[in-house]
Task: inverse folding
């Protein structure tokens, strides 16, 4: 992969995304769709500007860095205080909704796409996490009920980390890793330990009077912590994704101040890495990939994974919860297949298992359809809550109007 060409393509799309951001905020256009379509058009098979191959080490490194930053930022949003204050509805989505989504997706993969059960479970685990960044109008608009925004934020912040061990365990069972059961457990435990202990020690040191950071450098401390955790994981072969999420959650729990200071910087870094990875991911999907290498049953599976698996799982999870009908419908629909699924799909592709290529094809297709569908409907659904609020609380037509000047 030609890095200078990649930089030019990404920068051009990023400039276009910023210039169109106001329009995107009012219409079905979205930044994620822009990078998805842009990467596809720039990739091999269309304009051949980006020469990207799935076996390219740069693709894997970029995807891992992007997911690390995303999980670190996700962890920052779900400190223990947040989980204690708003656990009831997200708890249903995570404890019941996530496993049900995995099982229903696996059943569809087996009965519709014709995959063996073990590979079907692996695909279900890969596609079970959600990402509300691709539905930004839902979690970012004040018109949307706060408990719905909180539900989607907390759920998406936690489910990436919950799905990861399942992906690794099922992949190991399919013969996709060299690590033994104990080796895999050690990697996960070590990653969790690094993610908790390193921020805890550094933040305790920062509270000492002679080590306190000055105000304008405070946003750099959480960033430096993330880099330190990343370096230690790469050095010790600990699981860097679990470490990233644990580190972010530890910082959010121990220091509300540093969490707030890092929020804007961290979100910008994670967003840019995610978008460049989406562009590269889209460049891997050539016209041949979409037309010739995926059967009609694969297209049916991808569609059902979006319109059936998540809605059915969340409907069951929220029975008796008291969540309003419109809020529940929005939560059931806005389970966009997140960026974590892209990286988990690449991990499966590089694992060398027998059906790795087919699993990646189905993952790529489902994630692409999800980005197109969810990023194009978030504004429309958000407007429904505004309409509902107007209907439920109409202006008082009997009140006198102010006299003209």
Result:
């Amino acid at each position: 992969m030609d890095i200078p060409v990649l930089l030019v393509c990404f920068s051009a799309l990023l400039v276009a995304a910023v210039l169109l951001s106001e329009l995107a905020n009012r219409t079905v256009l979205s930044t994620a769709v822009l990078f998805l379509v842009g990467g596809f058009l720039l990739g091999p098979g269309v304009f051949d500007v980006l020469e990207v191959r799935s076996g390219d080490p740069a693709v894997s490194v970029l995807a891992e860095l992007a997911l690390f930053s995303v999980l670190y930022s996700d962890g920052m949003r779900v400190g223990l205080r947040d989980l204690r204050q708003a656990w009831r509805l997200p708890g249903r989505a995570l404890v019941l909704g996530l496993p049900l989504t995995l099982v229903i997706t696996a059943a569809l993969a087996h009965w519709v796409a014709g995959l063996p059960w073990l590979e079907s479970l692996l695909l279900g685990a890969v596609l079970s996490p959600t990402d509300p960044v691709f539905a930004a109008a839902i979690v970012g608009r004040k018109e949307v009920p706060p408990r719905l925004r909180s539900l989607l934020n907390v759920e998406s912040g936690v489910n990436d980390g919950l799905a990861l061990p399942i992906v690794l365990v099922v992949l190991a069972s399919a013969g996709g890793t060299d690590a033994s059961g104990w080796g895999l457990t050690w990697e996960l435990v070590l990653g969790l330990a690094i993610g908790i202990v390193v921020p805890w020690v550094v933040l305790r040191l920062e509270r000492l009077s002679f080590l306190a950071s000055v105000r304008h450098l405070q946003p750099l401390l959480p960033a430096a912590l993330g880099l330190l955790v990343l370096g230690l994981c790469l050095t010790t072969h600990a699981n860097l994704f679990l470490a990233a999420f644990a580190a972010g959650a530890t910082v959010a729990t121990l220091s509300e101040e540093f969490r707030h200071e890092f929020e804007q910087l961290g979100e910008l870094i994670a967003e840019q890495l995610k978008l460049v990875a989406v562009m590269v991911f889209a460049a891997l999907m050539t016209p041949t990939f979409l037309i010739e290498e995926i059967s009609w049953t694969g297209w049916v599976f991808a569609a059902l994974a979006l319109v059936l698996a998540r809605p059915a799982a969340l409907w069951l999870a929220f029975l008796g919860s008291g969540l309003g009908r419109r809020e529940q419908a929005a939560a059931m629909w806005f389970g966009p297949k997140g960026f974590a699924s892209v990286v988990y799909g690449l991990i499966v592709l590089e694992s060398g298992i027998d059906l790795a290529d087919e699993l990646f094809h189905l993952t790529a297709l489902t994630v692409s359809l999800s980005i197109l569908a969810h990023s194009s409907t978030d504004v429309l659904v958000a407007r429904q809550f505004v309409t509902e609020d107007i209907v439920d609380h109409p202006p008082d037509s009997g009140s006198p109007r102010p006299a003209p000047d």
